[in-house]
Amino acid sequence: MDKAEIRQTILRKRSALSLIDHNEKDTRIQKELEFLSIFRKAKNILIYFSFNSEVDTHQLIIKWMKKKNFFLPRLIPGDTFLAAPISSLEELEINSFGIHEPKAGTARDEANQPLDLIIMPGVAFDLTGSRIGMGKGYYDHFLADKKSVPRIGLAYSEQVLAHVPRNTYDVPVDMIITEKGVIRCTS
Question: Which residue in 2, 8, 61, 69 is a FRET match for 92, CA 20 to 30 A apart?
Answer without folding.
Answer: 8
